[in-house]
C-alpha cells in the first residue's frame, strides 16, 4: 500500500504584484490605442479606448483591496507561526 501523505498547503502568493501588472496592462493597452482613437471610432470601436481607461481606473480599488489582503495574509502567517506547536526537531533546526 502506498503511504498516505499530507495534502499540499494551498498557495497564498502576494497579490499586490498581480494587481499592479493588471493596471499596467490596461495602461499599456490605452497607450497603444491612443494614436488610433479616431480610426477606431470611425470603424465603430471608439469605446475600446474608454474601456482600457476604465480598466486602469477600476484597478485602483482592486490594488487597495489587495494591499489589505496581503497585510492580513502576513498577520495570518505570523499568528499561525506563533500558535503552531514547536517540536524538538523543529526547534533544533
SSE blueprint and pairings:
Layout: H1 16-33, H2 37-42, H3 47-83, H4 88-92
Helix pairs in contact: 1-3
The SSE string, one letter per element, is HHHH
Q: Unreliable runs, pLDDT <50, ≥5 residues?
A: none
Total of DSSP H or I helical runs spanning 4+ residues? 4
The class by helix and strand makeup works out as mainly alpha
Strand content: under 5%
Q: Mean of the pLDDT scores?
A: 88
Question: Which percent range fits the helix content?
Answer: over 70%
Profile the largest sheet.
none
- Distance between the amino and carboxyl termini: 31 Å
Explain what the structure shows.
- Helices cover 71% and strands 0% of the residues.
- The chain has helices at 16-33, 37-42, 47-83, 88-92.
- The longest helix is centred in the C-terminal third of the chain and has 37 residues, at 47-83.
- 4% of the residues are buried.
- InterPro entries: DUF2530.
- Residues 72-93 are annotated as: Disordered.
- Pfam families: DUF2530.
- Keywords: Membrane, Transmembrane, Transmembrane helix.
Provide a compact summary of the structure.
The chain has helices at 16-33, 37-42, 47-83, 88-92. It has 93 residues and is an all-alpha fold. The chain crosses the membrane at residues 15-36, 48-69.
Features:
mainly alpha, 4 helices, DUF2530 domain-containing protein, transmembrane, membrane, 71% helix, 93 residues, transmembrane helix
